[in-house]
Write a structure and sequence with these properties.
The structure is a homodimer of 332-residue chains.
Chain A: H1 3-11, E1 27-29, E2 35-45, H2 56-74, E3 77-87, H3 92-108, E4 112-120, E5 124-136, E6 139-140, E7 153-157, H4 162-170, H5 178-189, H6 195-200, E8 207-211, H7 215-226, E9 229-233, H8 234-238, H9 248-254, H10 260-268, E10 275-280, H11 285-294, E11 299-306, E12 311-314, E13 320-321
Parallel strand pairs in A: 3-4, 9-12
Antiparallel strand pairs in A: 2-5, 3-5, 5-6, 7-10, 7-11, 8-10, 9-11, 12-13
């Protein structure tokens, strides 16, 4: 099957919102008056971002999900995306499943494929996604990394550490019961981008980022861009680990035997979480709770922003913890 | 060097037109009121689109050029692009040269890098480019493949076949003098996107496409989308071969010894030409000439569009030629 047949069979659908979709030299998008276009781009490479045997349906989902997560972090409404795909061979069963996973998520977010490219080559998936952000009274409503202020509360959505738990188990570095592994793998392979929460936080959050490299690493980007510091209550972050086995008692009962240090590592530098880490002034705490409820997304306050530069970690008793979570591999 | 240092060192520059560039979850573009955004995406893979030893400066140029060529074919003014890059290793000399070639062309077209991604992996370059097309009285000014009508003239810009000549010589399938090879390689490795011509043809051309797969193949897309046929004067196309050795006399003098069939193959199915193939009603012939002059781009009429479906090829005497230029490798 040639490139054009492949595109026609698996990746061409009637456009709904775009002026022109797949099939010409360019696609055409007409942004609504008074809006800005938010644009993000992620490239996924086999062996680096996913295993060769990853279910293609989950891969189609994840390739778009990580891009939608960037739109969510900006509070942008998804509009459209382009897909460039390098394929080592034309495997129709693989392509059909990949397209199915991709379009199921695209449809759920009303985000349409408008163009792209296919070529032979080592498996590589590059998606560029387009979203819409309103401009109100000349001010962009986009959530940026640069808007956090000292005194703001720091929040995280959903759950942390599960994707990393799955990765460590799949690499044989720890043993977890099958049911826990299945749930954690689902988080790793089919993350749910927090688009609804991002939209609900417009005008409420002062800064936001999606957690792809781990809580501590991504928080660092907010600190750098906003020129503030932060204090994180580590055990509040640990409490976000989905399997709810973060305290000693349930941890034992769950069949997962990790040190306190390892639980903290999962939460603080898990990676691949695709949750929203965001800040908001204390005066907005009720609005944050309402946004969480409206978007049906759990949100937890895990710290606050400081005028003093740098990151401070506290345990449940308010004692300072050393921050070695960026440089230390506790599973090595 | 990590991903963030690499982006900071080689791929971060102050934005001029975008609201927000590299460094947040999304870039922000604010299209001018009354415009549409034209979007195109091309992925270049080592071994497929370029040789491993390709000069990285030329590669940076070409990766953007093939995308700008798509904007040109739509008559879109370049605005911005994203760059996703999978690199087998971090080679600073390579990156510096790649960035130099990329930004030299970007600056020449006032097209700025606003975001992207970098990752480890087999060398892969994926650029998504954004341009602007005005909407006048509710009608998009974009040049599309679908607008050709029976009776329209068919034109090609610039030169054809040189990139293919270089490829065949580099593969050892034919021998050409060094000076000719150098000029042809330049065309293969540093194509000049016909952006100025595309802009000048808005409101004049009825359909357009850029020639990347070869004249015959790309003309086929116009025929299919416009539901018309075409007659091509083959020797007018051959006359576009840049080295001006298309007639028997100068061909001999040039030191290139090809059969008439091979010359025709170069012109008709060369590939990698990145010229504009376009149609316009005969009433616009003076306007086409003026657009060519204004954009300092040679343009040649090579045929016309017919109501009868299909493609007909004629020689200089008006005799029909068999069309075996899509399936035949005359250099094999």
């Amino acid at each position: 099957m040639g490139e054009f047949d492949l595109i026609a069979r698996y990746f061409t659908r009637p456009v709904r919102q775009a002026v022109l979709g797949v099939g010409d030299d360019c696609a055409l998008l007409q942004p609504a008056p008074g809006t800005q276009m938010a644009i993000s781009c992620d490239m996924l490479v086999q062996g680096r971002h996913f295993f060769a045997d990853t279910d293609p349906r989950q891969l189609g989902h994840k390739a778009l999900a990580v891009n939608l997560s960037d739109l969510a972090a900006c509070g942008a409404r998804p509009l459209a995306f382009t897909l460039a795909l390098a394929l080592p061979d034309v495997n129709e069963a693989w392509l059909a499943a990949f397209a199915q996973g991709l379009f199921a998520l695209a449809d759920a977010h009303d985000c349409e494929l408008i163009g792209g490219d296919t070529t032979a080559g080592p498996l590589n998936i590059c998606i560029t996604v387009f979203g819409e952000v309103p401009v109100v009274n000349g001010k962009s409503q986009a959530l940026l990394r640069s808007g956090a202020r000292a005194g703001d509360d720091l929040y995280i959505s959903g759950t942390l550490g599960d994707a990393r738990l799955a990765l460590e188990a799949m690499h044989g570095k720890l043993t977890v019961p099958n049911a826990v592994l299945a749930a954690a793998r689902e988080r790793l392979q089919s993350p749910a981008p927090r688009v609804a929460l991002g939209l609900a936080l417009r005008g409420i959050a002062s800064a936001a980022i999606d957690v792809s490299d781990g809580l501590i690493g991504d928080l660092g980007h907010i600190l750098e861009r906003s020129r503030v510091g932060a204090t994180v209550q580590v055990d509040q972050a640990v409490a976000c680990i989905a399997c709810h086995v973060h305290d000693a008692q349930t941890a034992g009962a769950s069949g997962i035997h990790l040190s306190q240090e390892q639980w903290r590592t999962l939460a603080l530098c898990g990676g691949d979480d695709y949750e929203l880490l965001f800040t908001a002034p204390p005066s907005q705490s009720a609005a944050v709770a309402a946004a969480a409820q409206a978007s049906q997304t759990p949100v937890r306050r895990i710290g606050k922003m400081d005028a003093t530069a740098g990151l401070r970690l506290l345990d449940a008793q308010g004692q300072a913890l050393p921050n070695h979570y960026t440089s230390f591999d506790h599973f090595a």
